[in-house]
Write a structure and sequence with these properties.
This protein has about 120 residues and is mostly beta strands. The chain is built from no helices and 11 strands.
């Protein structure tokens, strides 16, 4: 079965950076589309960034475009989210997701990790 494990979350001051990592097992990375989502307390889960099987097509939420970068290493079965110029409103639990179909920022992915907490505060 597909398993996804996120890491790299933590606390950072506004303007700082973090890199999230999602390590996958149980699948062939090149056959899956991947996404990052986040959910803050009392809010709905929202799509942050997505990348297709080949790592060529990407999509970003308007709120993070230009600040976050999604990438993947198929050889390592690993997905990354580089987050720069972080803002307090980026505070949330971040989840990675995988599916053989392209859903972009739509949370219809079949497989999900447990998430990692990101807190941006001074």
């Amino acid at each position: 079965d597909v398993q996804l494990v996120e890491s790299g979350g933590g606390s950072v001051q506004p303007g700082g950076s973090l890199r999230l990592t999602c390590t996958a097992s149980g699948y062939t990375a090149g056959q899956y589309c991947l996404g990052w989502f986040r959910q803050a307390p009392g809010k709905e889960r929202e799509g942050v960034a997505a990348i297709d099987r080949g790592g060529i097509i990407t999509d970003y939420a308007h709120s993070v475009k230009g600040r976050f970068t999604i990438s993947k290493d198929n050889a390592k079965n690993t997905l990354y989210l580089q987050m720069d110029s972080l803002k307090p409103e980026d505070t949330a639990r971040y989840f990675c997701a995988a599916d053989t179909l392209w859903f972009g920022l739509n949370p219809q992915y079949r497989y999900w990790g447990q998430g990692t907490q990101v807190t941006v505060s001074s």
